[in-house]
Amino acid sequence: MARAGWGRRLLRVEFALAVAFLYLPIAVVVGLSFNESGQPTAWTGFSLDWYGSVLGNEDLLEAFRNTLVVGVVTTILATVLGTLLAIGLERAIHSPILDSLVYVPMIIPDIVLAIALLSFYNLVFAGLLNLQMGLWTVILSHVVFDVAFVAIVVRTRLRHFDRSIEEASLDLGAGEVRTFFNITLPVIAPGVIAGGLLAFTLSFDEFIIAFFTKGTVETFPTKVYSMIRFGVTPEVNAIATFVLMFSITLVLVSQRLREADA
Amino acid sequence: MRRRLLLLGPALGWWAVFLVIPVSLVIAYSVFERGTYGGVVPTLTLDNFARAVDPLYLRVLLFSLRVAVLATVIALLIGYPAAYFIATLPRRWRTPVLVLVILPFWTSLLIRTYAWIVLLNREGLINRGLEALGLVGEPLPLLYNEFAIVLGLVYGYLPLMILPIYSSIERLHPELREASSDLGATPLRTFVRVTLPLTLPGIAAGCIFVFVPSLGSFIVPDLLGGGLAIMVGNLIQAQFLKARDWPFGAVLALILIALMGLLLFLQAWLLERDRRQAIDG
Q1: Which of A15, A119, A139 to probe the B interface (max B CBs under 10 A)?
Q2: Cα torsion at B145, B150, B155, B157 (round to 10°)?
Q3: Which of A12, A21, B115, B236 is deepest in the core (most CB within 10 A)?
Q4: Do B106 and A15 touch (CB under 8 A)?
Q5: Which of B33, B259, B21 is nearest to A119 (CA)?
Q6: What domains can be seen in chain A, in order of their start residue?
Q7: Domain with B139 in it: what CATH number?
Q8: Per-residue pLDDT tens digits for B215-241
Q9: What is the interface pTM, i.e. ipTM, of the complex?
């Protein structure tokens, strides 16, 4: 017993160190963003000046608006497609191959997807149709991986679904479409919203695929990337803090909605 | 049939157009000649593949492999005990603690990688701290080297190691461990003979989840490695956006896809073998 307690204590220390490792860098950036001097050298006082100077950066705000547009449109498309796919996989077909196929867009290295899509857009849109790449090509690209995440989240929700209420609805003469909108959708709604929030977060933060498929416009991550490449500036700390808090909030809300399943 | 088409059609159609065709295009490009301003000239050639084994590029590939293996092993060493700790917590604590560990993964990798520049650079917090403590005379070169890249990758993908290992440990019946210790095995022996083998599928999945994105990583070596074309992800980016040699970039991407496919195949085989043993045994 004494030995087990000892092992447990070691595990606890290891775990605490792992959590510190995961959160310390984030904490440092957040702390620095409020430091008046903006430098890690010394704490010169609390200040929101760096946030103010971010808000004055027109190019950055423009990029931010672009990313919101991409995120919203991508999320709508991915949520519809992903929800339909989840229902299809759960109800309309039994195929282990399709089940594992869903994971491919999630694990394919993003640089590979990025160059594949660039090649494709360059050939079809720029080459054949004479269209410029832009936010719309970023949207087409982000839907590719977002659909997979939505499908997986919604599917979990569907597994906890009591199907007898659907059968009751059908027995009472409601058509399939009506049953879907009046029964199925309201029941799986938390999963659909959770999946949508996740999809939005992923699109909001996605850098490399946007970098290759954006044409001449900038998204928020590509703009932030060029700022980072230019050098570590206090403004970037403020942006970083905002981005981190934004994603963390969305993911926590999404998680809350999914926990209703359990 | 109509129902199937309606439900599965849109998503699978999207993937056919924006995943299968583009990846096929990359495969096709790998045997074409480069165009002057990017793109390709449809003349068949195998030169692009020959170039991949040119010592200059082979070194990049081997370096990428080494870095990805190192990152995977370190993530496993940190991740396994952490996953074990979470999986053996009282039930109601497991989900919140797991969320705590996974949460950083859902935030921007770009930003999280940036945070390490702040910590590691010559004027950075770690060097300042070491100097203040009088441990070093002058700043240590922590940034823009292999160490920084491995650290960044472990940091970026550690949650992906913890998650599958956690599920495999959590699914394990505690009775198995109890039986082992009741029969007189020490905790260490129980771990090595019972827990570890039974959680091998989780370990395999975690290793793949860390290894694959590490090998193809662009942002981490780009920001923490000093911006040279040092890993295969950077090399691919350079071929497409700078050197305008798309066919060679396509070959490099194919190597990544092939390695990923091989690993997934191995994993599936491992799972299948495991399942059969479970049935036989």
Answers
A1: A119
A2: 140
A3: B236
A4: no
A5: B21
A6: 58-259 (1.10.3720.10)
A7: 1.10.3720.10
A8: 999 999 999 998 666 899 999 999 999
A9: 0.90
